[in-house]
Amino acid sequence: MSDILRAGSPDTQWVPICRLDDIVPNTGVCALVDGLQVAVFRLSDDSVHAIANYDPFSGANVLSRGIVGDLKGELVVASPVYKQHFSLVTGRCIEDETASVPVYGASVQGEDVMVLKPADHNAALNGRN
After folding, report:
1. Cβ distance 24 to 118 under 8 Å?
2. Which of 17, 29, 62, 112 is the most buried (most CB within 10 A)?
């Protein structure tokens, strides 16, 4: 499997990323969705979460390679560069609440991992969808 999976078509909201079995539990992959790198994580219970792959502290697209865990009851990924923790639910940085990354809708449909296209996700949050 390639490091960055290419996905998407202009007429769909949900973008198939890969099969659930393609992601080892408690790890992530990076998918290119509408030109944006999205980090998609599979947890041990087979739930999936998606956030931007961009680490605002290092300026590198590396969050998909981070360590997934639980920090005081919150699902997080630790950046592999400077080790800041980002919530998989809200995108906020645990160590610095002034920093955050975008969070995207993610789900498992059948055997496929799906991510809501970033533009559609943002429109839904703003009540335009």
Report:
1. no
2. 17
Q: Are 114 and 107 in contact, with CB atoms under 8 Å apart?
A: yes
To 10 degrees, the CA torsion angle through 40, 5, 60, 107? -20
pTM of the model: 0.84
Q: What is the pLDDT along the chain (129 residues), one digit of tens a residue?
A: 344 454 544 445 899 999 999 999 999 999 999 899 999 999 999 999 999 999 999 999 999 999 999 998 999 999 999 999 999 999 999 999 999 999 999 999 999 999 998 765 555 444 443
DSSP result, 1-70: --SEEEE--TT-SEEEEEEGGGS-TTEEEEEEETTEEEEEEE-TTS-EEEEESEETTTTEE-GGGSEEEE
Residue 58, Cβ density class (10 Å: 0-12 exposed, 13-18 middle, ≥19 buried): middle
